[in-house]
Amino acid sequence: MSNNTTNTNIIIKRRVFPRKKICKFCADPSLKIDYKNPEVLKPFLNEKGMILHRRQTGTCAYHQRRLTTAVKRARIMALLPFVADIEVE
């Protein structure tokens, strides 16, 4: 009898796994990482201008390393900002 009461009180929670993100550069070989093309690099920066993590963007380790160096080079060449402009209200 006590066995039935414990089974009814247990709530089974199912873990929901998010879809695995695919590397944008591996999926489309024609898309090249180049510091001279800031339009390709901008989606990998947050609103503050910081480089997003691999977990957030889904890029593979190989392309994340190349992306990081391209963003840093673009910042030095003044194609991308080091810090985004923050409007004070």
Mean pLDDT equals 87
Return the CATH class of one domain. Answer: Few Secondary Structures
SSE order in H/E notation?
HHHHH
CATH topology of one domain: 30s Ribosomal Protein S18
Main beta sheet, described?
A: none
Q: Assign a percent range to the helix content.
A: 40-55%
Classify the beta-strand content into a percent band.
under 5%
Q: How many runs of DSSP E, i.e. beta strands?
A: 0
Secondary-structure class: mainly alpha
Distance between the termini: 65 Å
Q: Given the structure, what is the number of helices?
A: 5
- At the fourth level of CATH, the homologous superfamily of one domain is Ribosomal protein S18
* CATH hierarchy: architecture of one domain: Irregular
Shape: flat
Stretches with pLDDT under 50, minimum 5 residues: none
Rg is 22 Å
